[in-house]
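Appendix B. One record, verbatim.
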Amino acid sequence: MFSCCQEMPSAASQLPRLAYFDFHGRGEPVRLAFAISGRAFEDYRIKMSDWASEKAKAPSGMVPYLLLPDGSYITEMLGCLQYAGRDVLIPEDPLQLAYMHQFMHMAQAVWVPLRQLFACTDAEREAIKADRRAECEPHAERLEKEILRHQGGAGFCVNNTISLADIVLYSAVHTMTDMTDMDFTKKFPAITRVVQAVKNHPAVKQYYAAKQALNF
């Protein structure tokens, strides 16, 4: 379903190529959207040590971005998600679609306080992560309140089925937990249910099993 590589594939590739760093972050929601939608893609993982040269190749100087088989490209996580998850992870109902976008934008906001941590040394990260955690908590509180208004028995954000909103939230929580040691399980039960629902999705399980087999 997907191929992992750390060398830029040939321009003649017939698969969309996702370029992002070799960690979770803002690229993982797009990887998951491809996996859940059952669409093949090339998972081009950039080493941090190569970023200076790779940045010059990126259409907007940032990642993630998608390079499509016809040579066109899509930048920004939300744009890439719309392409990867089309017809599968996007509700048809206009109201549910609006709620999905609401949750995606709310979840994406948590990355803003975390940006500084990606460029820090381990010692610097330890010194400031409590402050970043304090900045993230109000975002999580707003998300928890809104999810409680919409969450169904299946645990997803909207319409009782998985959507782009769930995988963006899942990745945001993963990043907050990893970067700030923030514990969601007691204070944010609705968010925790979303995370568990995504983890338990059959396509997500299959994706991570394949990654483990490839040592990614």
